[in-house]
């Protein structure tokens, strides 16, 4: 296998975009995050892997202000900078959404709006982009993911893969510094996974900064600069995919990878 | 059967429906929906005082007869110095009544919109209020159409109670002609027929509206 490592080159010497330190979060008595650190540099792709309940989705959602950690700090270069030890005003938590955009597992497209309306909703309603300009940009983004002809379709008229590509375009239309993906292919039929991962890989190659919660190890291996393995609310191990997937240092990582790669053993 | 009486009474009764029953129902329903949306939002508020007030309002409206509510407004309020004419009294009582019933419908419809829709609104940068208005309410409206149509059709029939506080509407017209001619069976069956036609037309309208809103179906 002669896989080159453009991803690693891309990330080198890049300045940090996001620094998270000691994120903790409990839902009732259940401690989901028990001190998670995460650094994402500009242009880097970070994959979060781990069993369900490991806290990986909670980490991702915290980066978009959908969850509020109980403790820890979250700093984006250029703001906001949040310390969850004290109550964080809603406005400052919401400011995270000026910088990052989210792609959901179940796409969460707005069913009462056309594809185009879905994509321009954020820019026109929140960012105050003039409608005409937002439409031009939305059409260009839709064309990029091969959905130019679907602009006037409603989400329920699309396949799962097409819906998820619209979900990605809706996020891109916000021009975020950081793209967040929450298991974007987990809800798809297997034959539709490829078209979504292909779009994501292209985005990575173009230099978008991405944090991806995923079970697609092949994708993580081909695209990620760094992989974090989470279990029980902590980062058990982190490293380049080449290293982590072939020589995991921790027993828990090894067992998890084995279960995913050899489910029948 | 006295066909002469039928042909003479049919038009006044229908006119009573068109000039009395329908405007009364439409006006009360429109105001009632505004009240209902407000009450539903209060009910969903995390503030326990506000949601408690909304809950109490719904409880009173649903736990007391509409006729009693109507009489409290028209015959009761004058004894505390507030005199309201028949027509506005009816509108007040009916719209509060619709407000109570429709509030529960709207609340349930809002709750039926998946949490992911709120989150998708937040994540494109919208506030709570904007997400409610742009994302959640349009979807809740689609879900609410069948039950709210039923509320409206019930209201059209319930407005016959306004005849008891001297509002000139369909049933009062029929009553007056019946008293005058003593043809009770004939006149009340006539009134029933006109109500039935009104409600059938409205039910057809409901079907059309539901079909038109099909595109709002989620996922």
From TrEMBL, chain A:
Its domain of life?
A: Bacteria
Phosphoprotein in keyword set: no
Q: Which InterPro entries match?
A: AAA+_ATPase, ABC_ATPase_HisP-typ, ABC_transporter-like_ATP-bd, ABC_transporter-like_CS, MetN_ABC_transporter-like, P-loop_NTPase
Report how it sits in the membrane. Answer: Peripheral membrane protein
What SUPFAM superfamilies does the record tag this protein with?
Answer: P-loop containing nucleoside triphosphate hydrolases
Alphabetized GO MF terms: ABC-type amino acid transporter activity; ATP binding; ATP hydrolysis activity
Keywords assigned by UniProt, alphabetized: ATP-binding, Cell membrane, Membrane, Nucleotide-binding, Transport
- State where the protein is found: Cell membrane
Spell out the PROSITE patterns in the cross-references: ABC_TRANSPORTER_1, ABC_TRANSPORTER_2
Name of the featured protein: Amino acid ABC transporter ATP-binding protein
TrEMBL record, chain B:
Q: Name one GO molecular function term.
A: L-cystine transmembrane transporter activity
The answer to keyword Transport applying to this record is yes
Positions of the ABC transmembrane type-1 domain:
18-198
What the entry lists under PROSITE patterns is as follows:
ABC_TM1
Alphabetical keyword list: Amino-acid transport, Cell membrane, Membrane, Transmembrane, Transmembrane helix, Transport
Is Cell membrane given among the entry's keywords?
yes
Tell me which stretches of the chain form a coiled coil. Answer: none
Q: Where is it found, in Gene Ontology cellular component terms?
A: ATP-binding cassette (ABC) transporter complex
Subcellular location(s) per record: Cell membrane
Which parts of the chain span the membrane according to its record?
A: 20-44, 56-77, 185-205
Q: Please report the record's description of how this protein sits within the membrane.
A: Multi-pass membrane protein
Task: Name the family the entry cites.
Answer: Belongs to the binding-protein-dependent transport system permease family.
- Protein known as: Amino acid ABC transporter permease
Its organism's taxonomic lineage begins at: Bacteria, Bacillati, Actinomycetota, Actinomycetes, Micrococcales
């Amino acid at each position: 296998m002669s896989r080159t490592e453009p991803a690693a080159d891309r990330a080198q010497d890049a300045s940090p975009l996001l620094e998270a330190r000691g994120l903790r979060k409990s839902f009732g008595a259940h401690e989901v995050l028990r001190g998670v650190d995460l650094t994402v540099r500009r242009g880097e792709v970070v994959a979060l892997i781990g069993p369900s309940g490991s806290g990986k989705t909670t980490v991702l959602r915290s980066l978009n202000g959908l969850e509020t950690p109980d403790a820890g700090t979250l700093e984006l270069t250029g703001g906001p900078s949040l310390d969850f030890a004290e109550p964080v005003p809603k406005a400052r938590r919401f400011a995270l959404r000026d910088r990052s955009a989210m792609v959901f597992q179940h796409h969460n497209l707005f069913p009462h709006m056309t594809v185009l309306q879905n994509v321009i909703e954020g820019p026109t309603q929140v960012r105050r982009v003039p409608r005409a300009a937002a439409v031009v940009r939305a059409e260009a983004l839709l064309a990029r993911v091969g959905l130019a002809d679907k602009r006037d379709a409603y989400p329920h008229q699309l396949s799962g893969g097409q819906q998820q590509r619209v979900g990605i375009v809706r996020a891109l239309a916000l021009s975020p510094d950081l793209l967040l993906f929450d298991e974007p292919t987990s809800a798809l039929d297997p034959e539709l996974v490829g078209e979504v991962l292909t779009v994501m890989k292209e985005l990575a190659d173009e230099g978008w900064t991405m944090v991806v919660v995923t079970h697609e190890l092949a994708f993580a291996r081909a695209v990620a600069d760094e992989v974090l393995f989470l279990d029980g609310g902590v980062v058990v191990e982190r490293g380049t995919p080449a290293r982590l997937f072939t020589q995991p240092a921790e027993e828990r990582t090894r067992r998890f990878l084995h279960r995913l790669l050899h489910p029948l053993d | 059967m006295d066909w002469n009486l039928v042909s003479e009474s049919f038009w006044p009764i229908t006119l009573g429906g068109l000039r009395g029953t329908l405007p009364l129902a439409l006006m009360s329903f429109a105001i009632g929906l505004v009240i209902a949306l407000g009450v539903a939002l209060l009910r969903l508020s995390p503030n326990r005082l506000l949601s408690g007030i909304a809950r109490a309002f719904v409880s009173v409206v649903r736990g007391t007869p509409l006729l009693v509510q109507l009489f409290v407004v028209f015959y009761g309020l004058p004894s505390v110095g507030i005199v309201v004419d028949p027509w506005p009294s009816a509108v007040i009582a009916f719209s509060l009544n619709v407000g109570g019933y429709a509030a529960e419908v709207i609340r349930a419809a809002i709750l039926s919109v998946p949490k992911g829709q709120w989150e998708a609104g937040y994540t494109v940068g919208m506030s709570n209020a904007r997400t409610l208005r742009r994302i959640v309410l349009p979807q809740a409206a689609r879900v609410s159409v069948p039950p709210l149509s039923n509320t409206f059709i019930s209201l059209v029939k319930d407005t016959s109670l306004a005849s008891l506080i001297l509002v000139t509407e369909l049933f009062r017209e029929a009553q007056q002609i019946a008293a005058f001619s003593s043809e009770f069976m004939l006149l009340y069956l006539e009134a029933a027929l006109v109500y039935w036609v009104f409600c059938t037309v409205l039910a057809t309208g409901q079907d059309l509206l539901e079909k038109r809103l099909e595109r709002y179906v989620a996922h």
